[in-house]
């Protein structure tokens, strides 16, 4: 009998459903749809919403680079630093990705959200829905105490999503963007400020908690644990 890959890598077993939005693991079978989406365009080429300008890659190199990034994310996974990446489906169609990255999560209980959405799917409220879904997941199922995000001050769409979901301003910083300085806003969200969307249904959370050490950490803090 062949071993189920979800037993080897429990992030492959996660699934978060929120109405028409589904966050599903980025397995190799979904990579072609994400690559096609990215090649068709994510944003106006004259602007750059990302700190690392990965969408500037030549169109013939972008597919390899995108696949390599997700393969590398799996390979670099460790208890002290990990990045959970989901493909986003909206009404049955792959429309982008939603991630949550963290370091020393068992201590900090915080991480940063990051996402992209195919340009053809902008303006439909999908970005807000998928951000609400990932935040609900980490607050309700991973015991997060805050979630951070960031966006350049000229990225009105991302900042609008953050505002709708309940993030508050947490300062600014100057970053390099395409060889020039640009100002980015830092944002933070707590459970008390969170503006929820549709209720979520989650599969695979128990196995994932065990994989990242959450349940072991909780047991170690119980009075009678050994």
In short:
The protein is α+β, with helices and mostly antiparallel strands and 226 residues long. It contains 8 helices and 9 strands. The protein has a domain at 5-143 and 199-215: Aminopeptidase (3-Layer(aba) Sandwich), CATH 3.40.630.
Structure characterization notes:
Mean pLDDT is 92; it is low at 219-226. The protein has a nine-stranded mixed β-sheet, sandwiched between helices. It is α+β, with helices and mostly antiparallel strands and 226 residues long. It has a domain at 5-143 and 199-215: Gcn5-related N-acetyltransferase (GNAT) (Aminopeptidase), CATH 3.40.630. It is globular and about 50 Å long. The protein has eight helices and nine strands.
Supply the key terms.
single chain; 8 helices; alpha+beta; 9 strands; nine-stranded mixed sheet; globular; about 35% helix; disordered C terminus; Aminopeptidase; about 230 residues
Assembly classification: single chain
The third-level CATH topology of the domain at 5-143 and 199-215 is Aminopeptidase
Annotated CATH homologous superfamily of the domain at 5-143 and 199-215: Gcn5-related N-acetyltransferase (GNAT)
Overall shape: globular
Number of strands: 9
Which value, in Å, is the CA radius of gyration?
A: 18 Å
Looking across the biggest beta sheet, what order are the strands in?
7-8-6-5-4-3-2-1-9
Portion in strands: 25-35%
Sheet with the most strands?
Answer: 9 strands, mixed
Q: What is the typical, i.e. mean, pLDDT?
A: 92
Q: Under the CATH scheme, which architecture of the domain at 5-143 and 199-215 would be assigned? A: 3-Layer(aba) Sandwich
Name the CATH class of the domain at 5-143 and 199-215: Alpha Beta
Query: How far apart are the termini?
Result: 35 Å
């Amino acid at each position: 009998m062949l071993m189920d890959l979800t037993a080897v890598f429990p992030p492959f077993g996660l699934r978060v459903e929120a109405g028409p939005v589904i966050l599903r693991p980025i397995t190799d079978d979904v990579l072609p749809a994400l690559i096609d989406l990215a090649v068709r365009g994510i944003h106006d080429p004259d602007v750059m919403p990302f700190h690392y300008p990965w969408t500037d890659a030549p169109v013939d190199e972008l597919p390899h680079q995108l696949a390599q990034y997700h393969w590398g994310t799996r390979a670099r996974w460790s208890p002290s630093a990990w990045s959970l990446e989901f493909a986003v489906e909206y009404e049955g169609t792959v429309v982008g990705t939603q991630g949550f990255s963290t370091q020393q999560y068992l201590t900090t209980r915080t991480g940063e959200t990051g996402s992209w959405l195919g340009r053809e799917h902008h303006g439909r409220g999908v970005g807000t829905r998928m951000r609400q879904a990932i935040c609900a997941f980490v607050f309700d199922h991973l015991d997060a105490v805050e979630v951070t995000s960031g966006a350049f001050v000229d990225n009105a769409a991302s900042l609008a999503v953050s505002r709708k979901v309940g993030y508050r301003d947490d300062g600014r910083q100057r970053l390099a963007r395409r060889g020039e300085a640009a100002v980015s806003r830092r944002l933070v969200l707590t459970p008390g400020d969170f503006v929820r969307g549709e209720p979520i249904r989650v599969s695979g959370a128990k196995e994932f908690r065990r994989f990242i050490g959450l349940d072991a950490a909780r047991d170690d803090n119980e009075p009678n644990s050994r």
